[in-house]
Structures are given as structure tokens and as C-alpha cells.
Predict the structure.
Amino acid sequence: MTAPTPPSPNHGPSRSAPSYDPWGSAPHGKDPGGEGYARASAGREVLEGAVAAAAVAVLGVALGLLWLWLAPRVPLISDGTAVYLKDSEGEETIGADGTFVLLALGIGALSGAAVFLARRRGGVGVVIGLAAGALAGSLLAWWLGVQLGPGQDVAAQARAVGEGRVFDAPLKLHAKGALLAWPLAALGVHLALTSLFGPRDPEPAHPLHPGWGPPPGGAEDRPGA
């Protein structure tokens, strides 16, 4: 009669070592800090975008005043019954649009560089805020230049100055596409600076799969080593 086999020291059923599956996915479950972090990150993006939009849109006042000051005037003259261009071959009409575009490009480049320097790490919220603020600034500059420029009632101005007297036409922006010059310039400069001087993401240790790599014991543990 043989003696009974003594139990194993762990007093329990033997368990095999967990196998490693390089194609397996991460364990399912809720990260306790993931939802809160995502909410805080989204709130920070919205706040930074709003601040960038407000700061950029304020520059529309400067653009509007510069446009009012530098845009060429369109001279008109009245014969008592109708109002005509004093110089029918003059280029002052398109000159106002060109002046607005050139000024908007310059301010757009400056605002794009300023936003990059203020928020070097970038972010979707900052970019959206920059674009929205630039478009709002263009609209503000257009409205301000028109309101502070010569009166919009041409007939009233003609009666006020009298027959045969020259007066300035209202300041107008004929090509509404000029309003996009500032946003395009700002985004272009910001993108260029971000690609050249922005922070770089760290390279992953194993780009193909986070679990790929040598076995824990080294090369001698590999089959055939």
C-alpha cells in the first residue's frame, strides 16, 4: 500500500503562467480619470479658442481705421440732376478693395504669429478661435470703415455741396471675398510656424505594436538561440 502524495505547498490547484497575446486588445473597463480629464481638456480648448478669437477680433478696429485712412477716395460730381464719376477711367474704385486686402494680409500674418507665440503648443481650439476671430475682425473693419467714411446718402451729399462741386463717394468693399484675406493669412502663418517650431510628439518605443519586443529573459530564451 503506497503512501498518499503530499499536497503541493501552495495548497491549491496549479495554475499555468498567463500567456501573452501580441494581438490582444487592452482590458475592457472604464478609466476612472479618463472622463474627467477629457472634460477638462475640452473645456480648456474652448476657453483658449474664445480668448484667441476675442483678442484677434479686436484688431479689426485697427484694420478699419487704416483702411479708412489709406483707401483712395472716389470723386463724384453732380450736375444738378444726376451724380457722375468725376474721372470715369480712374482706378479708385478697385483701389479701396486692394487696400483692404493688403492691410488684411499684413494684420493676418501678425495675428497668426502672435497667437503661435502665445500658445506655442497649438490645439484645435486655438486654430478655430484664430480663424473665427480673424473673420469677425474683417467684418468689424468693413463695418467701421463704412460707418466712419463719407456718408452713404449720395443724393443728400450732392445737394449739400451744390451743382458742379466734387465730393467723395461712400467707402465700399465691392469684392466680398476680400474678407477672407485676413483668416487665410493668419491660418497660413500659424500653420507654417507650428510645422517649423511647434512641439514634436515623442516617438513610440515600438511603433507597430506596444507589446512587441524581445522576451523578458533576453535573446537566449528565444527558440533556437
Remarks:
- The mean pLDDT is 79.
